[in-house]
Every structure is written in structure tokens, then in C-alpha cells.
Amino acid sequence: MPLPAPLTEDQVYHGCPSEKLDFITTDDLEDLEQPCGQDRVLRALEFGASMQAGGFNLFVLGPSGAGKHEFVERFLSQHAAREPVPPDWCHVYNFRFSDRPTAIRLPAGEGQQFKKDLNDLAEELRTAIPATFESEEYQARIQELQEETAKRQHQGLFDIQEEANRNNIAMITTPAGFTFAPMRKGEVIDPEEYKNFSDEEKQLIESKVEELQKKLQHTIQQIPRLRKDVRERIHALNEEMVQLTLGGPIGELREKWSHLPDVVDYLDAVREDVVEHAEAFQDSENGPPVGLLARYRANLLVDNADTVGAPVIYEDLPNHQHLTGQIEHRARQGNLYTDFTLIRGGSMHRASGGYLIIDARRVLTQPMAWESLKRILLSGEIRIESLERLYGLVSTVSLQPEPIPVSIKVVLLGDRMLYYLLSHFDPDFLDLFKVEADFEDDLDRNDECYELYSRMIATMARAQKMRPLERDAVARLIEHASRLAADQRKLTAHDRVLRDILTEADHWAGQSGADTVEASHIQQAIDEREYRASRVRERSREQISRGVVMIATEGEEVAQVNGLSVLRLGASMFGQPTRITATARPGKGQVVDIEREAKLGGPIHSKAVMILSRFIASRYAGEGELSLSASLAFEQSYGGVEGDSASVAETCVLLSAIARIPLKQSFAVTGSMNQHGEVQAVGGVNEKIEGFFDVCREAGDVREQGVLLPASNVEHLMLRADVRQAIAEQRFRIYPVSDINQAIELLTGLEAGEPDGKGEFPENSFNRRVAERLAQFAEASKKQDDTGDVNNNSGGNGSD
Amino acid sequence: MLLDGSRMSYAALDAAADIASKTGADVLGIFVEELNLLRSAGFGFAREVGSESGVSRPFGTAEIEQRIQRLAEHARRALAVAAARYGGRHALSITRGSVVDEVLALAQPNDLLVLGRVGWSSAPGARLGSTAKGLWRRSPGRMLLWCESQASSRGRVVVFLNDHDDVNRRAIMAAADAVWHTHQPVTLLLGAGVDIPPDRLEPIKQDLGVSDSDFRVRTLPSTDPATVVQVLRQERAAQLVLSRDCTLLREPGAEHLLATLNLPVTITP
């Protein structure tokens, strides 16, 4: 197998061709209406926003910082502007069931007028009705009524008293009622004297007294009916007066709002209620109770007077109360009171008829918010209930406002993991969020993209109110976008990172007094960000340069190779070499992954070790038995090891240990390997190469060192300028390998050797030496087994 | 202060205590164990018909004695409480006999006699009790017929005057005392055909101790109760002061007028 040629400077970096950027500064470029490369998400949004059927709410998936929020809000605002303005909603007092305020729907913008009309009406009631009761007409009529009643009530008693007097019987008032007794000259006869009366006289008196008592009883028992009659007549009079007073204003309002039957019904209910409570308006000094007048006002819950098109609401704290609204309370002398005027609408109310954008993670972390959101979407109406009531923590009487029907499109923003978790674990989720809008992480980097990407940068810069960028600065940013995408043929779509670099570059441009942002400012922004995040990396490198962590960058060693790993800390990542060592001796065909045994290795790494174990068995043991007991370890690695990117290095170092052939320490190796020895792509190649380059540089001059990486990773390379420089000067080489044999040859300088028809490798080839050594292991094992068998047999016989 | 244990009599007691606290007068309570009532319970056939329920039940001497004692005790405590509030002297006289006679026997010309306009008979709907009817013409001094009025505390003291100077003078002096207590504005209500020249109004104003803004004169167009009530309402009258010798009370319907007026009335000799 021919050895690969080291990569050239051009192969490890895809520069931005300046001829593709046809402008001087970004001021020459027009704004980009839609972000480039996001056609999938745009079509999903277009479909989701237009789809009227239920359950077609949207979940916009994408990494955080991809600019989902701004993008979705901009799109929806444009889309919603063409849609009709939704209606206003208000709550009014329910005169039949006072704990269930009624909801009234009004055309958009009429809510304010309705509220004002009711305020005016209440104000009029406050003055006009007491004035009616103060009027001479009313006072005269009420006086007449009272007179007549008193007369009727008293007349009966008076008649009885008169009749008693005529019969010389006194009607005496007692503390609890009346009694009758014979009298003479206005004074009750002494009972002792009465005893001297004849029986006839006594019978006459007593029968008269009895008769009077019966009449009195009858008369008194008529009094409640009389009083009731009076009350009814007074009430009727009050009603009549109030009706007359209200006739004008209520009539006008009824006519004005005749197009809304609900409002007309409410006005009729107001009139009935005022009549019902007419007496409460009679206090001319203090006026009617404030609480009574408050019943005739409206609580405007949703006011779309100033809304253009359908509303697009972003709820930044999507908790239960903010979404569904709440019923507030007012403290009075240590007690809490509420009424329908204290009902507050939530963002679901405001967004009804339009769109509500919510961060999925936030809504999921708020107690009951997710359940409440689903409940509203499933039922199509908003029911305002407090959290403590939902939890059943309180049982006090409170308001139960009439649910308000809702037609809303909810747009959740979240990362992909959340979407997949919800899809898997929440049975309602896919019923309610049928539209998946998946944000692209990267954009294709081709000849057509340069103009669009430049315009996107220009749009971003203008939105940030930055200095314009020069062409070179845009080119540098495009190159960096490729680096961020870790792909020469891609550009990152990560909005936040680009925006941050732009903002920072603008700052440095300002510091240097420049009018435009130049390439050097972009580079400075990149370098400064790198530097700020470099503390851990530098400490790690320092450990290597001081020899605390042992990494060899020159010479040859048996059973030792430089692997490459990547560490991610926060938003930054860096690569560094790790020494991988191996041991090999005869055994039962097992390769011990020390990392796994120590529970420091992840499952993918374990899988990779198993693959290489099977690779060795299949390649070198043929149909025989593999006699090998080997071990692999990442030296001085105290954290976890995961991934299969070290499997090429592990294979090489294990084979080196078996064959006792030294490996060049000037190379570092990355790449995964399959069971046929083919080398496969891995991630983080740029950081790995740069990490090894930095270690080599700190160990002395960079010369003859290099990295072996999978050939399929070449198009992912976007290396730093100093690495490229070393490559150009052939001080640092990068070899793209596609097969394990290439790696072996580069690391050992020996021919790897292909097997012939009998499966034997060429004489003196690396593989031949490995195979011979394994055969020796097998022989040694066989002898050991035979000796063991003999011993066992002897032992067996002996025991007989 | 006539106490009979009725709700109205306790309201009158509060008013009396209030006046006493402002004038420094003593409060002398009188509770009369009404002889007619005690006697009426002594008959074997005696029954009491409840004023609210109309239910007839047996009525005995022992029972009424006990009730009267309880009421008297209650009156004593109420008087003590009211007096304690204003800190003046007080006494309660308990006598047995006719209420009117006992009160007249005790009252002196310089005393202010305070009583509820209606006692126990308010329950069945009476608006002027028999005691008030028996006393207002015969009281040796001023008499305040108290009632729990809905009239505003910011209302006016209305004094009714006619063309009899002595009678007017007594009414004005009584009104002056009321104004001094309450700082309320005053309306002079003149009987039909009565005219008081401006030069005589000034001394009246001085006697009353009110400023021009708190003083006005109005003539009563007619003396029928409805008109009087209407005018008093228009004047926002908080209390009415008049002499029992004035034309209003000399007419046949005087008791009806007093029954119709729903405000405290001071009647001067």
C-alpha cells in the first residue's frame, strides 16, 4: 500500500477567495431579509404559521445561540402583519353567580370604549340615583307610603284600644307586648277589689278580655304582612324611580352596543341590579358603596386597540401565572379580598389570535407551566386558576372567571435533545406540536454562499450598529466560520458566536481608532477570545513542557505512542497529546482496557478496544487461536476517556508491544478504525493538531514532527496560520491515512506487508513480525497448557 | 332622664349623657314601676299577647315583678356606664305609680327632661308613646323627645318661632344651648304670616351664637304635617326646637305632627 503524501498548506485551510467578495465595505451590501441556508426551517415556519388545524404548533429546534428567537420573531412579525387583529376581551361582574365573572368578546379596539362607557355610567349612577332619591317627588311619595302604612298598622291597635276603653278595659303595654285589665277612671282596678265583683261581672269582663285578646292577636299577626306589603311598595317605588333615572343612559348604551348581544344583555343585567340595590344609593352623604359601583365597571383583559395584525408575544418568564393569568388579591386590614377587577390576563390571553413564543426549557422548569400550557392547547380555552388551587393547597372560595376561548399558535424554542425527550416521554407532545422546524447548524460553503453570507454579516453589523467591515475582515470571518463549523465546506450558522466576534472586533477597531473593522480586528477578537479561555490549556501545556506529564516528541519507543484528545471547557475546546502505552504477553486472547477496568473509560472507547482486539485476532491469528494477554492505558490520564478516536493509535501501540518494534514519537495519531483496519473520521481534528503542534513547539524547534489523521478528515481542517506556516516549511507534516498499514509504516518506517494467498505476510515486514511473535505466544501457551495438563493428569493419578 | 328599658330609652340616655358632658349637668334617671302594669298581671285571666308574634301566653305578678326588677337593674347599669363615659354625677330614682305622674313629681322647671319618643310600644309600630303624649304638654321645663334619626350630623338646628315674644325667647334659648353643644347652623322657621324685622334678627343671631353664614330664616307656608316635614327635610334639620305654646303645637293635629317628625324635638314650656 503506497504511503500518503503529507498535506500541503492549501489542503489544511480553505481560504476565502477575495474575488468572490465584490464590495469594499459591508455598507455596500444590502440587508438580508431571510437568513441564508435555513430553507428547511423557513418552510416549516411558513407551514406551521399558516396551518389552521389544531395541534399544528411549532417546535423550533436548534442549538442555543443559533439566533432562533430573533429569527422566529422576525418571521412571525412579518407573517402576522398580514393577519386580522384579534378581538378584545373583558371580564364583567356576573350578577347571577358573583364568583364567576363573565367574559365578553368585543371587536378589536372597542374594549377601551366599552370600559369608558361603563365608567361613565357608574359615575352617572353615583350622582344621578341619589339625586333621584333626594327629589321632592320621591320624598313626598315615600312619606305618603310611610304615613299610610303607619296608619294601617296602628289603626288596628288603635281600634282595639278604643273598643277596650269603651268597655272599661285598659290595654296596657308590657315590655314584650300587651295585656288587658279592667279599669276604672283610667286606672287598672286592684285585683283584690276585682275579687269582690260578681261572677256575672267577672264573666262579662273576662269574655270581653278574651275577645279583645283574640282581636289583638289577629291584628298583630297581620303586621308582618303589612310590613312586607310596605317593603314591596317601597321597593316598587324605588324601582320605578331608578328605572326612570336609568332609562336615558342605559338606553343610549343599549343602542350604541346593539351590535353586541352580550353587551346588551350585560347592560340589562346592570339595570336590574341597580334597581335591586336601589336602597344602597340612598345615602346622599356618602354616596353608594364603592364596592357596588365597582360591579358596573369592566376589566379589560385583552386590549388590541394598538395591535397591528395578529399579536406576536414573547413570554420571557413562562410560569403558570404569566401564561394563564392570575387573580390578584388586595389586603385590607389583614384580610385578602378579590373581585373581577383584579383578574389579570396572561400572555396566552394577549397572544390569542396570534403567536406566542416560549423558550421550551424555561416553560419546563416552571411548576405546572407545561401542564397548563398543554391544557389550554388541548381545551382551546384559558381557565384562570391559581397555582395553589391547582395543587389543591387551598380550599377558600375564590373567583372562577368564565374561560376565554383561545386560538393561538405556540412556538417553542429549544435544543434538539429537549425535542426528542419530549417526543419520547410526553404522550401529548406530538399531538400538540406537530410542526418541527429544525435549524441548520451549518451552511454549505460554495461559490454562491459568499455573497449571501457577506450580506448576512453586513445585516448583523448594521443591526449591532457597528462600524462597517472591510472586505478582508469579512473574508477572515468567513474563514473563521468554517473553522467554527470544523469543515472546509461548511460555514457555521451559529448566530451568537458570529455576533459576539463582530461586536468584539468593533470594539478593537474603536480602540485602534479605525473607521472600519479590518481583518486584523477580527483576528484580534478571535485571539483575545482564545486567550481569555486559555488558562486551563496553558496549565496543561506547562505540565507537559516541564516533564510532569510525559510526552515525547522525538525519538522512537516500543509500546508507546502519542494519542490526541480534545477537552471541551465551556465554550472553548483544545487538543493535547496523551501518551498511550501497551503491554503484551501470551494469554487467552484478551486485551485489557485499563481505562475501562478502572471505570474511567466510556462505552464507545470500550467498543473501540474490542474492535481492535478482534482486528488483531482476525488478521494475525487466522484460523488458529490468538494467544495474547495485552493491556492498553492512557498514561497520566485521571479523567474519563471516551470515544473511539484513539483506536488507530491503540492498535499501533499494541502491535508495537507485541512485535517489540519501536514507534516514532515525533508523530501523534488520531483516527478510529474498523475491524478491517480501515481508518475512519473523528472529531476535533483542528484542535488536536494544533494541540500537538503547540506541545512540539514548546519542547524545542518544530521539525520533522507531524500528525497522522484519517484521510476523510482532511476536509475538516482549518488550521491556524502558524501551523500552516510550519507545514509550508515542511517542519510539520500531516499525513492522511486511510488504512492501519499506512499508519504502521509511517510510525515504524517498516513495510507493513500484505498477506499472500496462504495468508502469510512478507519476510521482514512489520505484520510478519507481529504474526511470528503471536505464534511464539501461542507456542508458549501451548507448552504451558501441556505442562498444566500433565501436572493435572499426574495430580489426578496421584490422587487415585 | 326617663328609663324604661326600651331600646329608644337607652338611645335617649346616650343623648342625655352627651348633653350632660357638655353642660356639666347631673343625670338623674327615673325608672317607674308602672302600677297599672303590675296590677294587670294580678288577674287570674291575665295573658300577654306578644307584640311581634301575636302569641298569647299566661301573665303573672311574680313574673312581671321579676322582669321589672331585671329592667331596673339593667337601667341602673346603663346609666352608670353612660355616666362613666362622661365622668359626671348620676343617680337613679326607682318609683312605683303612674309614669307621667312620677316624672312630673320629680322634674323641676330648670331640668331638661329627656325621653324616647316611644318606649315599648315602638315594637308594634307606634311612633309617639303614651308617656311622651302625657308629658309634652305638662313638663315643667324643657323636654327633649329623642329619636334615632337618620338626619345628618351636619344638619341644622331648626327653631320654630311665631309672633309671641316670650314663647320665641324660650325656644331661642333652648336652640342656643343646642347650637353651643353641636356647633350646627341654624334655621329660623317662621309661622305663616309671622315677620321678624331685620333689626330684631341681629340679637337673635347673637343669642344663638352663630355667624351670618350659619344662619338663615325661612317661612313655613302651611302648618300641615306634610309641609312641615318637607321643609324640615329641605333644611336638612338635625333637630327641631319649638315651644309647646307655638301655633304648631296648639293646633289639633299636634300629636300627629310630633309622631310624623322623624328627628329629635326639644319642646320648651
Automatic annotation (TrEMBL), chain A:
Residue positions of the active site: S645, K688
Q: Where is this region: Disordered?
A: 779-800
Keyword Repeat attached: no
User: Which key words tag this protein in UniProt?
Assistant: Coiled coil, Hydrolase, Protease, Serine protease
MF annotations from Gene Ontology? ATP binding; ATP-dependent peptidase activity; serine-type endopeptidase activity
Q: Which residues form a coiled coil?
A: 195-229
Q: What is its EC number?
A: 3.4.21.53
State the SUPFAM superfamilies in the record: P-loop containing nucleoside triphosphate hydrolases, Ribosomal protein S5 domain 2-like
> Which superkingdom?
Bacteria
Group of enzyme by EC? hydrolase
Which family, according to the similarity comment? Belongs to the peptidase S16 family.
- Record's protein name: endopeptidase La
